[in-house]
Specification:
11-stranded mixed sheet; two-stranded antiparallel ribbon; 37% helix
Length: 494
């Protein structure tokens, strides 16, 4: 082997890995072994990976044999990918949503997107830690904590820097180069938030672009899986691998002719020359001086690259409250359905049983309480009231939110700061987001929640339903103009 894998994999992209395997410079088995070695070395410092797939090396060997005999399946053939711990895999890995109640749970079947990844030739390297129950367990639970896995730490400053939403383990692992890329899930900010805080690219697709079948749910109207990677190219590649129509997820039935299996065709270095981008200043107001400076510099990059910038734009929906009754109703309904299908030896098969289990094991299960679980169990909405409340919010969101701003100014996208506040409107509508590294806050401050604003920071591009091709073009053009990402150095990791 002519390359030093431990050094090379630190920032290698999917295309480079595929070329190296095709040329014989390395194998999938060697890649998997190199990542496992890095996990053993660095994961104790950041707690991002919950478990390694015990079959990963054998899978890699089989894929190497397949490459040598019948050829490659494509860009993901033999590539090691990590999965968030709420995504079902029917193998020797557990699926627990970070909960000790499901610590021994093996999923009865692969999720739809896992089946797609396996078919594309990806090596499922392991499961990543996450905020327990995707941060819908307790209002006091810190980002990145789970009773099963403990605290996820940011590799740019373990224990000092914010990790953001519930896919924090997936983001921290990719940032520390513990896998080629990862899959996270998002209900409201849980892909793009962690990706922004870890100098990564994250895509939260339109709800319905990728199936949620086999993913532990929060909200049927907002949940979606999506890629987290080091580059826009890698994220676009992964997105194409997981999208598709699934007969078991009705949301995907609306996406025929709006789904593409190769989003890399939309990577356009000069896309910003023809783009119109709006700046919703409402979401810039709470930024500290450094992060506001990062955003102002990003706006200047848009202009320098030829984009038409409309500054400011108003969404007229910033203060409209999120209806928690709706989310609690969806969570209770979806979780009861998921838990009821688990093996009989698992101790919980309903939300009520989960609450009771946590209470009986409070010392380990209830470090931060379970007020959201209880509130969801006590939710009294019926199906008719639930649908009326959803329709009321969606009416306001469509007529006064993202669509309104895009139509009013003829925009291709909005550009938001990479914190979670600005992402809720897109989340409520199921609209796509993509984040790209933009800058590093050196001094930082402590925000109202006690989290440090120091560290990596990204910009987020937001658009209408199924606008992924446009958002990918904008993000790639911005990425190539700035090249802001850098990996954590050994001093930061230590």
């Amino acid at each position: 082997m002519s390359i030093n894998l431990q050094n090379w994999i630190q920032e290698a992209d999917l295309v480079s890995m595929q070329k190296a395997m095709s040329s014989g410079e390395c194998t999938s088995e060697a890649l998997v072994l190199a990542y496992i070695e890095r996990i053993h070395r660095y994961n104790p410092l950041i707690n991002a990976v919950l478990e390694i797939n015990p079959d990963a090396l054998e899978i890699a060997r089989n894929l190497d044999h397949e490459r040598n005999t019948t050829g490659s399946r494509g860009t993901l053939h033999g590539i090691p990918i990590l999965l968030k711990d709420n995504i079902n895999t029917h193998d020797r890995m557990h699926t627990s949503a970070g909960s000790i109640a499901l610590a021994e749970s093996f999923a009865p079947e692969d999720s739809f997107i896992v089946a797609k990844l396996r078919a594309a030739g990806a090596v499922l390297l392991g499961k990543t830690n996450m905020t327990e129950w995707s941060n819908f367990m307790s209002n006091s639970m810190p980002a990145g904590y789970s009773s099963r896995g403990g605290y996820v730490l940011n590799p740019y400053g373990p224990g000092k820097l914010f990790v953001s939403g519930s896919s924090s383990g997936s983001a921290a692992a990719v940032a520390a180069n513990l896998a080629a890329a990862a899959i996270g899930t998002e209900t409201a900010g849980s892909i793009v938030g962690p990706a922004s805080q870890h100098f990564l690219v994250g895509i939260k697709p339109t709800v319905g672009l990728a199936s949620r079948n086999g993913i532990i749910p929060i909200s049927i109207s907002q949940d979606t899986p999506g890629p987290i990677s080091k580059t826009v190219t890698d994220a676009a590649t992964l997105l194409g691998a997981i999208v598709g129509i699934d007969e078991n997820d009705k949301a995907t039935w609306t996406s025929p002719h709006r789904t593409f299996h190769d989003y890399t065709s939309y990577l356009d270095r000069y896309f910003l020359r023809k783009a119109r981008i709006g700046i919703p200043r409402h979401y810039y107001r709470s930024l500290d001086e450094e992060r506001l400076s990062i955003m102002e510099s990003a706006i200047e990059v848009l202009r320098e690259q030829g984009a038409t910038v409309i500054d400011p734009v108003d969404l007229h929906l910033e203060q409209h409250p999120w209806n928690n009754d709706v989310i609690c109703y969806e969570f209770k309904t979806g979780l009861n359905r998921y838990l009821s299908k688990l093996n009989s030896d698992i101790p919980v098969h309903s939300l009520k049983e989960l609450i009771d289990y946590n209470q009986k094991h409070a010392a380990s299960a209830l470090k931060f309480g379970q007020d959201n679980l209880i509130r969801s169990e006590e939710n009294t909405l019926n199906e008719i009231t639930y649908q009326l409340k959803r329709q009321e919010y969606n009416h306001h969101a469509v007529t006064k939110g993202i669509d309104y701003a895009l139509d009013q100014h003829g925009l291709d996208a909005l550009m938001l700061p990479g914190d979670i506040d600005g992402m809720y409107i897109a989340a409520r509508l199921g609209y796509p987001l993509i984040t790209v590294p933009a800058g590093y806050s050196v001094k930082g401050t402590i925000d109202a929640d006690g989290d440090s604003t120091k560290g990596p920071f990204g910009v987020v591009f937001s658009g209408g339903a199924y606008s992924e091709p446009t958002l990918i073009g904008i993000a790639y053009s911005f990425e190539q103009a700035t090249l802001s990402r850098r990996p954590p150095d050994s001093g930061e990791l230590m």
